[in-house]
Amino acid sequence: MKRRNLVIGGAAALGLGACSSQSKFKSYNGPEVTYIVVNKAQREMFLFHNKRVLKKYEIDLGFEPIGDKFFEGDGRTPEGNYFIDRRNPDSKFHLSLGISYPNARDRAEAAALGKPPGGDIFIHGNSNLFRTVNKRLKGTEDWTWGCVAVTDREMETVYAMVRNGTPIQINA
């Protein structure tokens, strides 16, 4: 009897371990996200299906949130039209979706300043952790190097809903 309980208990522990390692990956069977809109000034991101808002999120931005991104390290979140071009299930920021920055205009602007445009702009998680730290230390909730951040739980939903190739419009 003891051996049977040990085997059942071990199997249950293994099963729980398997569930927890996959818990950040959700499934989504609703309407297709046809585009994303980020309004930087309002700190909002919307996921749309055609003209219908599917989800709305509060966001954090780059540590210098006002204005367009001009070069690597300026702390600004880019403005303009892009698309989701990659997925990172192993992101150090929980999960992330790549934004196709820089485009030709962005590269030209940076070149005119004699600087590299940068890259690796994402929608990603970990917002709660950094929001708390930055608000306490710097009096601001914006903390990324130019990315758009939501909470980890929200990012799990965004990651499940948004596909590569989805257009994203980032407004001032």
Outline the structure in words.
With 172 residues, the protein is α+β, with helices and mostly antiparallel strands. The protein has a single domain (27-171), classed as Beta Barrel (L,D-transpeptidase catalytic domain-like), CATH 2.40.440. 30% of the residues lie in helices and 24% in strands. The protein has helices spanning 2-21, 104-112, 127-138, 152-161, and strands at 35-39, 44-49, 52-58, 80-88, 96-99, 121-124, 148-149, 167-171.
Q: What's this model, at a glance?
A:
This protein has 172 residues and is an alpha+beta fold. It has four helices and eight strands; from the N terminus they run H-E-E-E-E-E-H-E-H-E-H-E. The protein has helices at residues 2-21, 104-112, 127-138, 152-161, and strands at residues 35-39, 44-49, 52-58, 80-88, 96-99, 121-124, 148-149, 167-171.
Q: Which secondary structure elements does this structure contain, and how are they paired or packed?
A:
Blueprint: H1 2-21, E1 35-39, E2 44-49, E3 52-58, E4 80-88, E5 96-99, H2 104-112, E6 121-124, H3 127-138, E7 148-149, H4 152-161, E8 167-171
Keyword list:
globular, alpha+beta, 172 residues, L,D-transpeptidase catalytic domain-like, eight-stranded mixed β-sheet
